[in-house]
Write a sequence for this structure.
């Protein structure tokens, strides 16, 4: 009987010891062991601007990471030198600083806290209107019309009109141009003057699409517009070219694209439609 008790106790203590060992191993691997983490491998580069006039912002990648790793990476701050007037082929030096207290808490051993990166993939400006693909020009026109359609009621009330906007019957682009900036800190752009035929009146509205370059994409997030404040002479003579020159000629070289002749019929919309939101500058 005593022998059986001894064997039972031995088995009990062996099981207990095994559980303790397992718990110690779990604690070591998940809570005590220092884990290397490559900061630069988890950096995301976002370039703003064009070849010869770009800058970069760096942030931690957001992805399929555990919460502790993501929290730590989100605490990392990046410094870049140089970070102005960047061109393709330039080398930038990136230095990272991190929250040491958080690294110690999570038992992280950061590595690769600085590196050199070669700039690439920056878009180039077009030399002139003739270099711009026809497809991009058409995409710009379509985006301008979509913008006006989405904001037609807000456009009508832009001068503080409080009455309900009458139905927008038709619209057409009466003037379009490519504006090449004389200043490197301003992007090249398309501008359009849209004639909006409401039931009781005609309005002229100018839409601007910035960041035109050989990425060959339309920057729909930064489209903006404003009422075309034509002088009486410009209105009477439908001198849209004169208006655009008066507004932009000091900062841009202006090349007219072409003149539209087809009216676009517009389906009625409710007053709540404003998909993109009116952006006015």
């Amino acid at each position: 009987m005593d022998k059986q008790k001894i064997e039972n106790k031995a088995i009990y203590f062996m099981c207990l010891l095994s559980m303790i060992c397992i718990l110690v191993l779990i604690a070591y691997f998940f809570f005590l062991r220092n884990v290397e983490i490559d900061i630069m491998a988890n950096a995301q580069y976002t370039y703003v601007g064009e070849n010869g006039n770009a800058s970069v912002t760096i942030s931690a990648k957001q992805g399929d990471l555990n919460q502790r790793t993501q929290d730590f990476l989100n605490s990392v701050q990046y410094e870049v030198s140089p970070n102005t007037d960047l061109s393709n082929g330039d080398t930038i030096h990136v230095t990272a600083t991190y929250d040491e207290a958080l690294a110690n808490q999570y038992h992280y051993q950061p590595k690769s806290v600085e590196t050199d990166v070669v700039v690439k993939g920056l878009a180039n400006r077009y030399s002139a209107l003739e270099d711009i693909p026809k497809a991009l020009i058409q995409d710009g026109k379509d985006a301008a019309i979509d913008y006006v359609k989405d904001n037609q009621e807000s456009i009508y009330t832009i001068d503080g009109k409080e009455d309900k906007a009458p139905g927008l019957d038709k619209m057409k682009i009466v003037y379009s141009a490519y504006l090449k900036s004389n200043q490197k800190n301003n992007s090249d752009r398309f501008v359009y003057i849209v004639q909006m035929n409401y039931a009781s009146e005609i309005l002229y509205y100018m839409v601007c699409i910035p960041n035109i370059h050989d990425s060959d994409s339309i920057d729909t997030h930064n489209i903006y517009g404003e009422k075309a404040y034509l002088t009486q002479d410009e209105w009477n003579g439908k001198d849209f070219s004169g208006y655009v020159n008066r507004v932009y000629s000091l900062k841009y070289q202006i090349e007219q694209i072409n003149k539209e002749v087809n009216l676009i019929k517009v389906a009625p919309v409710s007053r709540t439609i404003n998909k993109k939101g009116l952006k006015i500058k």
